[in-house]
Design a protein that fits this description.
64 residues, mainly alpha
Length: 64
């Protein structure tokens, strides 16, 4: 987690584009994104609910 926080800090500090899109954040930190997403997904969720959980994952990654 500390490596991700440092990498995210450097990304923004160097003028990087905001990483608020789930696809962009997943590309930026795929393993962490997947780990957090799996912890909040449930089987049988609708596509809309899954999309909402992907957005929540991005928010959670920013507040860590």
């Amino acid at each position: 987690m500390a490596q991700f926080q440092l990498r995210l800090f450097r990304h923004y500090n160097n003028g990087g584009v905001p990483l608020y899109d789930p696809n962009e954040m997943e590309a930026f930190a795929p393993a962490l994104f997947t780990q957090i997403l799996k912890s909040i997904l449930n089987t049988g969720m609708s596509k809309d609910r899954q999309d909402t959980q992907r957005k929540r994952t991005v928010a959670l990654m920013h507040i860590q």
